[in-house]
Amino acid sequence: MEEENRYLIKSLMKSFEVLELVVKNERMSLKEINDITNLGKSTIHRILATFKEMNYIDQSKEDNTYYATIKIFELGNSVTDKMPIKKIAKPYLQRLYDECNETVNLAVVTGDNIIYLDKIMTKEPLRIDLEVGKKVPIYCSSLGKAILAYSNRRDFTSINFEKFTEKTIVGSEELIKELEDIKLNGYAFDDEEYIEYLSCLAVPIKSKDGSAIASISIATPTIRLNDERKEQFIKYLKYYASCIEGELARSYIL
């Protein structure tokens, strides 16, 4: 470990600590960044000036706060676009969409969140859009719960259980119980837990050892989800998830 640490560029690590803060927050002042990092205002100012010169961040002329530019988004998209699972899943997402005519999504877990890798948006006038690249807490999304259920993780002390709606899961015990039900039934359900009036069904995409590496979902306004459609959507999801798993296995990715 000490040998590896010899090659670390600590100044670069500090720079990316600042960049990550700006990216994760809508806008941040120099003082706010310093209060969190304790790097010193002069150091932070030089870091910000460098990233500004590289067009990764910009500064508001109104209040001098800093914010991430579209270049960060483009950089993130260039990474996700090259992920094998996104390319392999794409045609099956299209077929899933053709079957259900509702919004379909592909996501993976990053830390305590899921991130949307791909989606096909419904053409129905009543819809809710969560764009590609959007992060959502893992505990209140069907996509996240589907992946968690098929993982070994059962320690959720790092999660801040924020209550988004009256139906949001608010603790580890409740989450663990639901994960057990998900594994028993083979699918996860978000019953307006993150956004009111939006329901989502999801299933995991599993590797050969049975652990989940991603998940796919169908999202629809709750008013359009009756029991018959719910059962049909679950069948579609399980079928196309198995198709994606087969393609990944044939590509030697799983």
From TrEMBL:
The keyword Lyase does not apply. Transmembrane segments: none annotated. Residues 71-250 form the IclR-ED domain. Residues 9-70 form the HTH iclR-type domain. PANTHER family: HELIX-TURN-HELIX TRANSCRIPTIONAL REGULATOR, ICLR FAMILY, HTH-TYPE TRANSCRIPTIONAL REGULATOR RV1719. GO terms for biological process: negative regulation of DNA-templated transcription. It comes from Terrisporobacter othiniensis. This is IclR family transcriptional regulator. Keywords: DNA-binding, Transcription, Transcription regulation. GO terms for molecular function: DNA binding; DNA-binding transcription factor activity. InterPro entries: GAF-like_dom_sf (IPR029016), HTH_MetabolicPath_Reg (IPR050707), Tscrpt_reg_IclR_C (IPR014757), Tscrpt_reg_IclR_N (IPR005471), WH-like_DNA-bd_sf (IPR036388), WH_DNA-bd_sf (IPR036390). Gene3D superfamilies: 3.30.450.40, Winged helix-like DNA-binding domain superfamily/Winged helix DNA-binding domain. The lineage of its organism: Bacteria, Bacillati, Bacillota, Clostridia, Peptostreptococcales. Pfam families: HTH_IclR (PF09339), IclR_C (PF01614).
